[in-house]
Input
Amino acid sequence: MDKVKINNHQVFSLVADYTIGTTILSIISGVAEYAAQDAWIVALITPLMGFPFLLIYFYLAKLFPGKTLVGILQDVFGKWLGTILSAYIVFVCFLSVSQVVFYIGNFMKTEYMTETPLYAFNTFLIIAMAIGLMYGLECIARTSEIFFYIITFLVLLVIILDLPNVKKENLFPVAENGIIPILKGCLYLNSYVAWPLIVFMMFCPINVEDIQKTRKSFFYGYYWASFLNFLCTIMSILILGATITAQTNYPTYLISKEIDVSVITRVEGIVTFSWMCSEFIKVSVYFYAGLVGFTQILELKDYKKMIIPISIVLLVFSGVVYPDAQYQNMWDSTMWELLIGFIAAVLPITIIIMKKIKDGVRHIQTMKINEKEHYDSVQSLFYLGLAAFIIILSFFLIKFLLM
Amino acid sequence: MKVACMVFVILLAIFLSIRDIPEMKRQKSYKEMAVYVIILFLGVMLTILKANGADLPNPADVVVAVNSPFVAMLKGVLE
Output
């Protein structure tokens, strides 16, 4: 067990900052690409779609108390397959660090300093992150508490100052192309808002006092981030219109350029600053999760010695992961959904089903001793079959609807 | 710039080794030491290669290779 413990409010702010990062600046245009002027409906109903998955994660933590995702996988799938699967997840965590760092460097390079090489920005971010993690998780958690208020205040400030620019005819017509584009947008946004929270299962169960008591603050953080995301989406649509929102890379940055209230103009630095803060938390959480998984797989004593060597490798790869804009587009629109969908949706459900089957088999083995247990196991097998049937049915239904 | 980058990374690696490896030796954690040295060496090699303009393989291609069968299967849902 880790000695470092974080409290409920820190979990809340970590989840909120982690979810705001990336989403608030660059994902909105992707959503507008799918759903056009209905992007605000997507941002409104996606939190509800993601909610069952969070419940699944907490149920997972209840089934395996005190175990992280790596431990759970090794417990359920056995030593070898579990290690391969958890190595895949750790690999994805480290890959995400490189990608998010690239995002920040690329943003600074395209919007502010076009002559500076990409590695200059990436190096400073990686150094800051490495120093933060050398101090430990509680340092990152406390930082996120401060950053949370800064981000919330600045984003709300931008939204309020932007109110005079609103053109409400941009919202109409509502649901022009039917429900299907909205659902696709929901899937896309879900893969950036709700599913990445599986990363918290890599370290949360050993770093909080009682995981079930943090449930409420976890959900509050998730909903607060979704609310800010919704505000930014609807303002982008209202001010820029669907076409420009879909075409530009950073819609929120663009709407902050539009602000013109008496002497207050050109305040886009505000958005950049708050975005950098949340991205810093996002990178740190990914890196910490990857490090904890890494040390658990290799059974090392402490993660702190591994920080600098790994961050050198990640720094080099931060300039390699996205060779061009086309690759980035392909990755963000299809690959990431599949990847995180496997890790965060298919894998937890499979784990729960496997666990139930194992328990059922154990029940049947001890059946002769007690007749009541036999009844219970048969009942649980029946429920299991029902659940599997519903899952398969819903899969075919989705496929049929969307083909 | 190229030479400065290489020299900086090698100096950093030497400094880190001097700082960390004796401590690990004292604690007799040889596994940790092996992992540490391998990753540090990898980092230095990658930095030198990248500084000299080599085309490094993209780690994201591993994920693309693993997931490409499913992309064709779920094309209607994703696009």
